[in-house]
Design goal:
Blueprint lengths: L1 H41 L15 H12 L12 H4 L1 H10 L9 H9 L5 H29 L10 H9 L10 H32 L1 H15 L6 H6 L1 H13 L5 E5 L4 E3 L2 E3 L4 E5 H5 L2 H4 L15 H4 L20 H18 E5 L7 E3 L3 E3 L5 E5 L1
Antiparallel strand pairs: 1-4, 2-3, 5-8, 6-7
Helix pairs in contact: 1-5, 7-8, 8-9, 8-11, 8-15, 9-11
The structure holds protoporphyrin IX containing FE (HEM).
Protoporphyrin IX containing FE binds next to α8 and α15.
Length: 382
């Protein structure tokens, strides 16, 4: 009996201790760490909205986005995308300055503690993840089969073929796992498809709205190619088209922000950034800043790029970052620009287009910045 009593006391004490430890950990993650970080950043002049327990600033951000999206925007001459797509950045930079500190991921802190049941969204996303994986695997298996059955000599020289080849590499240290192969396919599909879609959609919208520039771009394309299929030399020489694309990338940057996470404490100029802090550089904010682009920053004026990015940005070329910055700059930069130029040239050769009266202007950040209700144009055969 005594030993049973002792056991009960030991187990209860252990459970109490565990509970206290869990509570300390929760408090540390939800309150102490964010509060300490805010204090540290504030002491270096980086201020932000007050941190809210559990949700951080996530709720504020989603409420601001909901409010911004509640009614269609006017598409007159101004293209104030920042206040619609990133209203929190727009409003907080006004209050706290251009480098502000928020805690958008407060939610993630609590996940590991309170996650007993999966939400409907999580169940659906796991199912979709499985389906995507199965579809990619099916395509991969078909490639493999062709080689195994002697139908083809190699896996192919396209991107998928190179990945499958790397998956079968005889050298252990060079071989990639099937998970890496699948992840790379997903990355390239999302990074390559959605972004270029977004660029083309916004460019068509802007050219449909600013028909003078559409005429200029068409004149250049016809001079260069006539009605022939665009060729690489000509594509490289399309100056007006490059200016138009740059202006679209500036105003409606497909990727709204570039992220970096500090793996360890780093010094950035005078600023000390503690380990694990995520830095979000808003491309849209930089691209719409009148101090960089001038008082006409919200206007569609491709001519600002006539003498290059440095001239257009008042010698701040680094502030134009639709494809990111540094060693992780977009690997598809040239591919995407050429792809967009070919598609636009072929459209301009065949059609003139105007905006449909049914178009509703609602830029929205899903994975990329996209027109929430699509871009409806009326095509007129040439
Ligand atoms: C208009 C089209 C595109 C835009 C605006 C765009 C933009 C970006 C941006 C902003 C980044 C992040 C860079 C950084 O963190 O500094 C990025 C990364 C990346 N992009 Fe693109 N991209 C486009 C097209 C493409 C295409 C067509 C491909 C592939 C064919 C591609 C593949 C990638 C990959 C793999 C990365 C990750 C690079 C790394 O982390 O090392 N992108 N892109």
């Amino acid at each position: 009996m005594t030993s049973l009593g002792g056991l009960v006391i030991t187990v209860s004490s252990f459970l109490c201790l565990l509970l206290v430890l869990v509570l300390i950990k929760i408090l540390h993650k939800l309150w102490w760490a964010p509060a300490r970080l805010q204090k540290l950043m504030a002491s270096q002049g980086i201020k932000g909205p007050p941190y809210r327990l559990i949700h951080g600033n996530t709720k504020d951000i989603s409420n601001m986005i909901k409010e911004a999206m509640s009614k269609p925007k006017s598409l007159s001459s101004s293209h104030d995308v920042l206040s619609v797509v990133q209203p929190h950045v727009h409003s907080w930079t006004k209050i706290y300055g251009k480098s502000e500190c928020g805690e958008p991921n407060g939610d993630s802190h609590i996940i590991s503690f309170f996650k007993l049941f999966k939400t409907g969204d999580e169940i659906e996303s796991e199912k979709l993840e499985k389906d995507v994986r199965a579809s990619i695997l099916e395509i991969v298996r078909k490639r493999e089969e062709k080689v195994m059955t002697g139908g083809e000599e190699s896996f192919g020289s396209d991107f998928l073929g190179l990945l499958v080849k790397a998956h079968h590499d005889a050298n252990d240290s060079q071989r990639i796992s099937v998970d890496d192969l699948i992840d790379d396919c997903k990355t390239f599909y999302v990074a390559g498809q959605e972004t270029t879609n977004s660029l083309l959609a916004w460019t068509v919208l802007l050219l449909a709205h600013h028909t003078d520039w559409q005429e200029e771009a068409r004149k250049e394309v016809i001079q260069m190619f006539g009605k022939q299929t665009p060729n690489p030399d000509g594509i490289a020489k399309l100056k007006t088209m490059s200016m138009v694309i740059n202006e679209c990338l500036r105003l409606y940057s497909p990727v709204g922000a570039v992220l970096r996470k500090a793996e360890r404490e780093v010094k950035l100029g005078k600023l000390i950034v503690p380990a694990n802090v995520e830095l979000i550089m808003s491309c849209l904010s930089l691209h719409h800043d009148p101090l960089i682009w001038g008082q006409d920053a919200q206007l569609f004026k491709p001519e600002r790029f006539a003498e290059g990015v440095a001239k257009a940005s008042n010698n701040n070329a680094g502030a134009f970052l639709p494809f990111g910055v540094g060693p992780r700059t977009c690997v598809g930069l040239n591919f995407a620009t050429i792809e967009a130029k070919i598609a636009l040239s072929m459209i301009l050769q065949r059609y003139s287009f105007t905006l449909s009266p049914g178009y509703v202007h609602l830029p929205f950040q899903l994975l990329t910045n996209c027109p929430l209700r699509g871009v409806q144009v009326m095509l007129h055969s040439l």
